[in-house]
Amino acid sequence: MSRRKDWDTYFMDIAYMASTRSQCLRRHVGAVLVQGKKLLGTAYNGAPMGVPDCYEAGCMLAEDYEVRIENGQESVIKKQRCIRTIHAEQNLLLFTDRIDREGSSVYVTDQPCWTCANMLANSGVKEIVYHRPYPKDSEKVSLLMQTRGIIFRPIPSYEPPPNTLTEIIN
């Protein structure tokens, strides 16, 4: 008798499978929308439809600087991001209906960045489940979710399906 996967593993496996469609050279991200135990949508990061993606045209990098104060010490964090790519969470929101998102869960391979977290916080979802951390925005995203009352939980012990995990380039 085989052992069934738990629901978190099942839906995160689907998010990782969606991520295999990404042509991003820096990070493959997948996301799924779930209402109860019903899968309502999948998405991955990539260039807009009909536009050359990063694999074809290279990354279009932008640099941001963020000032952080920790223990009274000010530091400047340099962040690079690709602006050619629409994030998986953004695509998920673009291709699903608001009515379906009300009270639903999003499973995403990577912790959402600040922009995606803001969009998800306003989307009607009640829970965000992720596997890989995104340290650049982690603290402020966690605080946002706490403030909004959205369940925000990692599943760090999760093991992605074979051939779905890509190297992350920061």
Automatic annotation (TrEMBL):
PROSITE patterns: CYT_DCMP_DEAMINASES_1, CYT_DCMP_DEAMINASES_2
Binding site for Zn(2+): H87, C113, C116
Keywords linked to the UniProt accession: Hydrolase, Metal-binding, Zinc
Limits of the CMP/dCMP-type deaminase domain: 6-152
Cofactor: Zn(2+)
Alphabetical list of InterPro entries matching this protein: APOBEC/CMP_deaminase_Zn-bd, CMP_dCMP_dom, Cytidine_deaminase-like, dCMP_deaminase, dCMP_deaminase-rel, Deoxycytidylate_deaminase_dom
Signal peptide (residue range): none
Gene3D superfamilies tied to this protein: Cytidine Deaminase, domain 2
Pfam families hit by this protein: dCMP_cyt_deam_1
A GO term, aspect molecular function: zinc ion binding
Biological processes annotated in GO: pyrimidine nucleotide metabolic process
Coiled-coil blocks: none
GO cellular component, one term: cytoplasm
Active site: E89 (proton donor)
Family: Belongs to the cytidine and deoxycytidylate deaminase family.
Name of the protein in question: Cytidine/deoxycytidylate deaminase family protein
Organism expressing this protein natively: Paenibacillus aurantius
